[in-house]
Amino acid sequence: MNTNSLRAKRLLLILAVLDTGCAERPEVPAMVPDINTASSVSSPKTIAISRALGGEETNFFMTSVIDNEGFRKALKIALEKSGLFRIVFIDLNGDYVLYPKIVFQDMFPGLSMRSVFKVDYRIVDGWSEKELWQRRVISTYDAPLAEALYGVSRVRKAHEGSVRENIQSLLTQLSEFVAADSTRDTSNPAIKPAGDPR
Questions:
Q1: Hey, which residues does 133 pair with through a beta bridge?
Q2: Domain ranges of the chain
Q3: pTM of the predicted model, to two decimals?
Q4: Which CATH number is 7-180 given?
């Protein structure tokens, strides 16, 4: 999609929601998928979530978008609930470090607001910084009129839904990573301040 058509589409979205109030920031709890039971696989190792990249801050006079810190918090809650790793860190390095990078987010306006969300994830060894795993996860979510009457609320709910779907897909793929990596020994009893190898 070229720049002009993207701008035109965003303008239509702005016009569609302007008469219903200010943009609403996606809420962290609503971005966390339902996790009723812990994963059937579990690693004895820890994982740290690096700062997310590529997100945007919601401008309350424009439209709702997914921001880096809110996405990172939702990831932490979901990983903790999943039980895939022994401990999930934010500000300390773990045996693994997860790097999330938002590479695309967009909203397609209509009676049902459709959010498209693409994230590049990679995991590195927390001590050697060797890359162990990477995936691009693409998710979509349609927020129908029945889910929220006002346009700004549907936009928010669509974003929240696409993040939930994205994280749910990530957890499924991470369970495969944990199962395949169960024989790898990268654990280290020391904990050091988190760095960013990128």
A1: 123
A2: 7-180
A3: 0.79
A4: 3.40.50.10610
